[in-house]
Write a structure and sequence with these properties.
The chain contains 11 helices and 24 strands. With about 400 residues, it is an alpha+beta fold. It comes from Oryzias latipes (Japanese rice fish). InterPro entries: Zinc_finger (IPR050331), Znf_C2H2_sf (IPR036236), Znf_C2H2_type (IPR013087). Its main location: nucleus.
């Protein structure tokens, strides 16, 4: 790029000398960093800083003060880009901007192979190697390697959400979060998987999805060494060690380690069955139950017995079949101590005791090495079924879909 001699002349007289060191006013604060991930747990695993090409104008490191100069409309910017409509107050800014068109990156990191279009970005990048975090929060102990990161963090204390959606009433603390949200209105999914046809609204969702193809599970449990694709999955898993069940049912005493489990449980109280079969219109409380039911229409039997040639449409059918080989009888009547391989057989047995043996009014059957389960009759038993109690969880046995839930609870 050939810059004319007149461009080397000093700034107009009305522009104060200190403007030489200030950030060009049109640069948005959010441009200093890439779009942050919305999943907080995974923010720390991402590359600390990726400088986008859109960063036309670097902010000098020594200037972290608030802009106190004249309004942008009062500033004359004599250095114009011939490739686009942008103009700049300093020749150095224009030269730096031109690299966004030429893709030149003359500043290289000596620690790694990354290169940058301006020295400011290189200096910022070097903090990822040195660990330097010079910007500290006065409200808590957190520190940051960028002033913009600190400013964004401060909104978690102030509750400020300055970026509002024009299509709905939602507001956001970061402009990148607003951009991401806008895709829910436009339907845009710019990030596509090269392995399959799936597309995503956010780059971090694509990265997380790619682990399905690569098999990568970078998050390990320190208690049992299990690994997970997401930190969210690891956090839920940790509750199996701590016994934490933070989600409680308001209708009964049941509590759960996942909110999804609570939502599923609530359908036992409401009777809601939001998942319907398109073939026969049957409704189910869980999507897994619907998927299992669909095999009755397709005839697919994906679960095979390794001891014989029998195939089954559902995993719990296979497990129940395996008892014919192992001779396991996990369902016991405490009234007469008879044992059965199937829950159905125990139900039939209980009818034979109805009115004859009061001890069998609420027998217990035990699933070996699993849990103790109590069965008690409801008022209109056997026509309306009975209730299955797994710990404090009540499962109504009201239709043919209920055994699916029972089997999942006991496997």
């Amino acid at each position: 790029m050939n810059f004319g001699v007149e461009q080397e002349e000093p700034e107009p007289a009305q522009i104060k000398e200190e403007l030489e060191e200030t950030k060009p006013p049109q640069i948005k604060e959010e441009q200093e960093e890439p779009e942050p991930l919305q999943i907080k747990e995974e923010q720390e695993e991402q590359e600390p800083l990726q400088i986008k090409n859109e960063q036309e104008e670097p902010q000098p490191l020594q200037n972290e003060e608030k802009w106190e100069g004249p309004e942008p409309s009062q500033i004359k910017e004599p250095f114009a880009c011939k490739e686009c409509t942008k103009s700049f107050s300093k020749l150095s800014y224009l030269k730096s901007h031109m690299r966004t068109h030429t893709e030149e990156k003359p500043f290289s990191c000596k620690e790694c192979e990354k290169s940058f279009s301006n020295i400011c970005n290189l200096k910022t990048h070097m903090r990822t190697h040195t660990g330097e975090k010079p910007f500290s929060c006065k409200e808590c102990d957190k520190s940051f390697n960028l002033i913009s990161s600190l400013k964004k963090h401060m909104r978690t204390h102030t509750g400020e959400k300055p970026f509002s959606c024009k299509d709905c009433d939602k507001s956001f603390s970061q402009i990148s979060h607003l951009y991401s949200h806008m895709r829910t209105h436009t339907g845009e999914k710019p990030f596509s998987c090269k392995e399959c046809d799936k597309r995503f609204r956010q780059i971090n969702n694509l990265k997380r999805h790619m682990r399905i193809h690569t098999g990568e599970k970078p998050f390990f449990c320190q208690e049992c060494n299990k690994s997970f694709r997401q930190t969210f999955d690891l956090k839920i898993h940790m509750r199996t060690h701590t016994g934490e069940k933070p989600f409680s049912c308001k209708e009964c005493d049941s509590s759960f380690n996942q909110v999804s489990s609570l939502k599923t449980h609530m359908r036992t109280h409401t009777g809601e069955r939001p998942f319907s079969c398109k073939e026969c219109n049957k409704g189910f409380s869980q999507i897994s139950h619907l998927k299992a039911h669909m095999s009755t229409h397709s005839g697919v039997k994906p679960f095979s017995c390794k001891r014989c040639d029998k195939g089954f449409s559902r995993i719990y059918h296979l497990k129940r079949h395996m008892r014919t080989h192992t001779e396991e009888t996990p369902f016991s009547c405490t009234g007469c101590e008879k044992n059965y391989t199937k829950l159905r057989s125990l139900k039939t047995h209980m009818r034979s005791h109805a009115g004859e043996n009061p001890q069998c009014s609420a027998p217990t059957f035990t699933v070996k090495n699993k849990v103790d389960v109590n069965i008690s009759h409801v008022e209109s038993f056997p026509q309306s079924g009975f209730l299955l109690f797994v710990g404090s969880l009540q499962v109504p046995m009201l239709d043919s879909s209920s055994p699916v839930l029972i089997a999942e609870l006991m496997t």
